[in-house]
Amino acid sequence: MAVVPILSDEEAGAEALAIFDDIRARRQTDYVNHFWRALAADPALLKATWERLQQVMAPGALDPLVKEMIYIAVSVTNGCSYCIHSHTAAAQAKGMTPAQHGELMAVIAMASQTNALATALQVPVDERFLAEEGAG
Amino acid sequence: MAVVPILSDEEAGAEALAIFDDIRARRQTDYVNHFWRALAADPALLKATWERLQQVMAPGALDPLVKEMIYIAVSVTNGCSYCIHSHTAAAQAKGMTPAQHGELMAVIAMASQTNALATALQVPVDERFLAEEGAG
Amino acid sequence: MAVVPILSDEEAGAEALAIFDDIRARRQTDYVNHFWRALAADPALLKATWERLQQVMAPGALDPLVKEMIYIAVSVTNGCSYCIHSHTAAAQAKGMTPAQHGELMAVIAMASQTNALATALQVPVDERFLAEEGAG
Amino acid sequence: MAVVPILSDEEAGAEALAIFDDIRARRQTDYVNHFWRALAADPALLKATWERLQQVMAPGALDPLVKEMIYIAVSVTNGCSYCIHSHTAAAQAKGMTPAQHGELMAVIAMASQTNALATALQVPVDERFLAEEGAG
Amino acid sequence: MAVVPILSDEEAGAEALAIFDDIRARRQTDYVNHFWRALAADPALLKATWERLQQVMAPGALDPLVKEMIYIAVSVTNGCSYCIHSHTAAAQAKGMTPAQHGELMAVIAMASQTNALATALQVPVDERFLAEEGAG
Amino acid sequence: MAVVPILSDEEAGAEALAIFDDIRARRQTDYVNHFWRALAADPALLKATWERLQQVMAPGALDPLVKEMIYIAVSVTNGCSYCIHSHTAAAQAKGMTPAQHGELMAVIAMASQTNALATALQVPVDERFLAEEGAG
């Protein structure tokens, strides 16, 4: 179905394999999912994407599960089927309960609806929502 | 700028004013923002939207601030300028710190990027990400 | 393929089953389609979505078939495969002819094209297209 | 605000002026809106876009007002501010009542919401919604 | 999977067959792909789309391969699976190398990411990026 | 208009200023545009975004002007007003002629149109467009 081959370990080059090893080590699983195997034909893109993902999704001011739910919200709005599947699975692995999933769905649906209304009516932004401008 | 008038209290009908009163009471402010005033020409739509929003954004399995950040993620991906402004303000009012805002931005940017890659390469979904099917 | 189970009648809870019964009664068919079965794990979301849909799609100032065609236009633009299939089927059930479908396609294609051009050129809105502002 | 000049009659070339004349004649107004003036720097694109628009929006199996509402639905979903303004004005000029506008808003909001849910849950298409396949 | 039949040569009408013949002649292949067969039920739409495509994709100020890569970028951002597949194949047929494909992916991913950030932060446009306004 | 301050040099911290200096050096201009000043409140995000942009947009298998046009195509489809303005200006600075801009517009408009049609009709992908699958 892909427009590029999903490379097996045997088909991947040395640079890509090194990233696969890092994925396996950090995720403590032998399984490397299709997304990374699809990127493996371009090891520089694979490396840049994987490394940035590690930085961004690491625990910080936001909880890792919250980050996964934000990721799902973006993926749903973009209509990225692969991303919805993989990040819903990741959120579940990080403890998302069915009740949390249900509320996530409801917020995404609500936001999609009011986004459409605000855009359809071209509602002008209230002054109180604007930041103080600096150098702008 | 809007394609409909942003109704003042004097211009709004009785049904819309009743919703404005509810907005004021629940939000403990005298200010009714443009979105609701733009909907006021259609009181049934105003009422349905406001009431559903109250249900969806109420505390539940997810924290209200988390819900606001999910709302922002959807609004950014949809490119809804009004919604980004109003829900960023709402998240800040609920305590979102600059560090949390920064991480929210980073997750949204990361997801937008990997969404594009997964879509561009048409990566097939890994079987392990699929739910067990029931009646399907 | 779904990220949640598509619940059969046996798997659905009592609250969800009551909605399934309402769907069957109003649509005069025994068939309950996947969308509702996917929502059934969260009966509150199922109920709110179904009830609002009934209100919105009821005959009113717009013809029900016109409403279905508007629904298709939104679904195409959002790239929602499920929704395109189900609402095209619904429009056909409400009498959409091949000629009407063809014109619907042509309008959607035309709008997609001029939307892209207006956005690409960042054309400023003509003053005569703006509503008189009220409280704004 | 545009990334290209909005050409006045004096600035436009002969080919573009001929299209402006056709716009004036068919629309029975002296006013040529910004969209066409923004395209005027590329007369071939201006001509192809204007001529195709005339064909597509002409009365046919669908009513011209219905076509405008479908155009609005696409424009809202694409977030094209210019297009929302110009086609809402066009629909009003063709007789769209406030009640029809309100229902149009409600259908667009409803579709946006269920699109998000069907996509978020990755609901598989029901077999009965699929067309009989021919040469496929 | 389609919502309309994918017409074989036997099922297509005379007007559609004439377009199929033109596709075969210009592309120097006997194969007519599904997109055109799906449009064949509406010969006027088929004809208008095919003829405009020929004009737009012809060699001009931009190289045909560059045009295909721009087409891919739009299709990825719109999430059009069919279009991503067909135009990636077309770009490869026109000589796109794996290295060029990799860089195309990287630019699309980068743009998706900074688009999200600029939108999320609602960054105001710098004055120096605006065109001189003419008649606007 | 932004939801965050657009930081002046005086308001930016030392880490952000170091990136501003790098922007000035590489672009050989004293001007730092709003996008970077909006990111400056989060120096880690500013740094990661700027550095990755340099890598991605550097000359390689694709010409820098081609990369800018691909960037514009993504930005138009995402409706990112800021990005359309800044990358159109960048493309013009790299030598994009009005004729090239016109063809870019025409390709984006054409792709938007056929994307909508392929999605609306849910055209199934032709087998010949699929890559050979490897480990998938």
Q: Topology, please?
A:
The structure is a homohexamer of 136-residue chains.
Chain A: H1 14-27, H2 34-39, H3 43-57, H4 64-78, H5 81-93, H6 98-121
Helix pairs in contact in A: 1-3, 4-5
Q: Which labels suit this protein?
A:
136 residues; elongated; homohexamer; AhpD-like; mainly alpha; 0% strand; 2 domains
Name given to the CATH architecture of the largest domain in chain A? Up-down Bundle
Low-pLDDT sequence parts of chain A: none
Question: What class do helices, strands and sheet pairing of chain A give?
Answer: mainly alpha
Computed over alpha carbons, the radius of gyration of chain A is: 19 Å
Helix share, percent of chain A: 55-70%
CATH topology of the largest domain in chain A: AhpD-like
The overall pLDDT of chain A, averaged over residues, is 95
Q: What is the domain tally of chain A? A: 2
What is the percentage of strand-forming residues of chain A? under 5%
Give an overview in words.
The structure is a homohexamer of 136-residue chains. Chain A has 136 residues and is mostly helical. Chain A has 2 domains: 1-58, Up-down Bundle (AhpD-like), CATH 1.20.1290; 60-122, AhpD-like. Chain A is 64% helix and 0% strand. Chain A has 6 helices and no strands. Chain A has helices spanning 14-27, 34-39, 43-57, 64-78, 81-93, 98-121. In chain A, helix 1 (14-27) packs parallel to helix 3. The first copy, chain A, is elongated and about 55 Å long. The termini of chain A are far apart. Chains C and D meet through helix 2, helix 3, helix 4, helix 5 and helix 6 of C and helix 2, helix 3, helix 4, helix 5 and helix 6 of D.
